[in-house]
């Protein structure tokens, strides 16, 4: 790797921004200095004048090649190139335990899919779907293999859903080894009954996806997961919080001193349930779980971000084609594969409609999309920050570059884009992955296989406020 200097840019951290030059050597940030400080170094110089210099985004919530009944979400190849061009340099993907198989088999399957096929670095969570004594005993081994975060689905009955006993046992065991439990909080039993009732009465269109998953279904499961975490004294992380009531459950628990954390996703901030009512079957494009909510929830989510109730934003990128895949549910909304896309555009959207619309500062954007995800997922300070010794995962972000999002020009593999027609002001111009220039003048110039598996460390930020663990972490 050639030595590089990024000069004249505005470096942004979660707490401030300043003008400085960055020296990159051997994949890491070697030094940060004042303007011109490295002028005498024999290096390639990249001029970042007028650009923000931010850490590569860490998207802690993606689903690459994920089995969804009878089909798979979009693969690593297309989606990680799209991610790179959008300014994301690390994803944390969900390896799904196949029923009857071990956690190690899930890790191996995911690594096999990812290695040689990923444009950016990746780490893994494991979604436990089939618990028994052997799997409980395997949790410490997963942590030793660098997988420290365990996802449990409280929804998707007869597929990935687990019961409360599983949630309780995994919370208890993962706490012993510094793991973090992440939950998809929706009451899957009740959703399943509601779906049957609606489909049987002929209500089969995409909008009924939202009707059968009302926000109380999410709030109740959030409350239950938090209660079980409290009983086990384990930290818990609630993914894809979609609106006011579940956010309020997290807020209340945090005010009681419980180690409860949460993530929301760009689509809950920028899209609403009217998209599910688009003419014909178009609403199927927007079927994801939890569902898109009424518009009034968007401001409540911004409030939850501002007051610290929610600490991260992740894309929940789980992309399917409209034509061949979403159409599986043409006669029955409950058969539409759940998930949407966004990894190519999430930073652009968050900058254009978050920072520029004064919902948050650019410092907060860095905190929510890079620093905090890296901290919670055990990847900090290797990832999520521009600091001496950190991986040189760096984005030069042009705050003025304009374009309109269109599926026909996207790199994401799907035949549609969640954010079709949104106008953008601000996007990644250059991206460096461990010092390698992988996006130049907003064009991908890297190669698949360049991305590496990154082990996550136990006792991430979720443990910062827990003073009872015996590892002396706090
Ligand atoms: O609809 C969604 N969110 N699909 C991806 C899987 C999940 O629930 O996170
Ligand atoms: Zn989920
Ligand atoms: Zn997800």
How would you characterize the overall build of this protein?
It is a single chain. With 474 residues, the chain is an alpha/beta fold. The protein has 12 helices and 19 strands. The strands form 3 sheets. Strands 1, 2, 3, 4, 5, 16, 17, 18 and 19 form a 9-stranded mixed sheet that branches. An 8-stranded parallel sheet has the order 6-9-10-11-12-13-14-15. Helix 4 crosses helix 7, helix 7 (215-232) packs parallel to helix 8 and helix 8 (244-255) runs parallel beside helix 10 (296-306). It has helices at residues 76-86, 103-114, 133-144, 164-176, 188-200, 207-211, 215-232, 244-255, 266-270, 296-306, 346-355, 362-376; strands at 4-12, 17-25, 28-33, 44-47, 52-55, 57-62, 67-68, 71-72, 88-96, 121-127, 149-153, 180-184, 236-238, 260-264, 312-313, 394-404, 423-433, 436-440, 443-444. The mean pLDDT is 97. The two termini are 37 Å apart. The structure holds N-(aminocarbonyl)-beta-alanine and zinc ion (ZN) (2 copies). N-(aminocarbonyl)-beta-alanine is lined by residues 63, 184, 240, 288-289, 316, 318, 338-339. Residues 184, 239-240 line the site of one zinc ion (ZN).
Keywords:
474 residues, alpha/beta, 9-stranded mixed sheet, 8-stranded parallel sheet, 12 helices, 29% helix, 23% strand, globular, binds N-(aminocarbonyl)-beta-alanine, binds zinc ion
């Amino acid at each position: 790797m050639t030595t590089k200097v990024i000069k004249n840019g505005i470096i942004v951290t979660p707490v401030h921004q300043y003008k400085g030059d960055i020296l990159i050597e051997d994949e890491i940030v070697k030094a940060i200095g004042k303007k011109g400080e490295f002028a005498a170094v024999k290096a390639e110089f990249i001029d970042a004048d007028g650009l923000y210099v931010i850490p590569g985004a860490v998207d802690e919530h993606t689903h690459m090649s994920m089995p969804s009944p009878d089909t798979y979400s979009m693969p690593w190849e297309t989606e990680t190139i799209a991610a790179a061009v959008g300014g994301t340099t690390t994803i944390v993907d969900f390896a799904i335990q196949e029923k009857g198989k071990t956690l190690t088999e899930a890790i191996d399957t995911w690594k096999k899919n990812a290695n040689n096929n990923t444009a950016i670095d990746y780490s893994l969570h494991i979604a436990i779907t089939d618990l028994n004594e052997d799997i409980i005993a395997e949790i410490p081994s997963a942590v030793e293999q660098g997988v420290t975060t365990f996802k449990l689905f409280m929804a998707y009955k007869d597929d990935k859903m687990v019961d409360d006993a599983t949630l309780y046992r995994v919370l208890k065991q993962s706490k012993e080894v510094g793991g973090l439990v992440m939950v998809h909080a929706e009451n899957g039993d009740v959703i399943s009954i509601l779906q049957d009732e609606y489909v049987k009465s002929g209500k089969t269109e995409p909008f009924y996806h939202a009707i059968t998953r009302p926000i109380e279904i999410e709030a109740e499961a959030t409350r239950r997961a938090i209660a079980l975490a409290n009983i086990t004294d384990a930290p818990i992380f609630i993914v894809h919080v979609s609106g006011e009531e579940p956010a309020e459950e997290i807020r209340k628990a945090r005010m009681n001193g419980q180690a409860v954390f949460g993530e929301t996703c760009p689509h809950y901030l920028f899209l609403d349930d009217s998209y599910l009512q688009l003419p014909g079957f178009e609403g199927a494009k927007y079927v994801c779980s939890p569902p898109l909510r009424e518009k009034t929830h968007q401001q409540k989510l911004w409030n939850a971000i501002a007051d610290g109730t929610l600490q991260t934003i992740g894309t929940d990128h789980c992309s399917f084609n409209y034509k061949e895949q979403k159409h599986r549910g043409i006669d029955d909304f409950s058969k539409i594969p759940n998930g949407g896309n966004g990894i190519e555009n999430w930073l652009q959207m968050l900058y254009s409609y978050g920072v520029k619309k004064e919902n948050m500062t650019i410092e907060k954007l860095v905190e929510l999309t890079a620093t905090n995800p890296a901290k919670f997922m055990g990847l900090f300070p290797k990832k999520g920050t521009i600091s001496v010794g950190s991986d040189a995962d760096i984005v030069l972000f042009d705050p003025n570059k304009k374009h309109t999002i269109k599926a026909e020009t996207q790199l994401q593999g799907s035949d549609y884009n969640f954010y079709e027609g949104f106008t953008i002001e601000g996007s990644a111009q250059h991206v460096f992955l461990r010092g390698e220039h992988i996006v130049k003048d907003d064009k991908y110039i890297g190669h698949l296989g360049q991305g590496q598996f990154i082990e996550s460390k136990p006792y991430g930020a979720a443990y910062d406020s827990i003073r009872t663990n015996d590892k002396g972490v706090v």
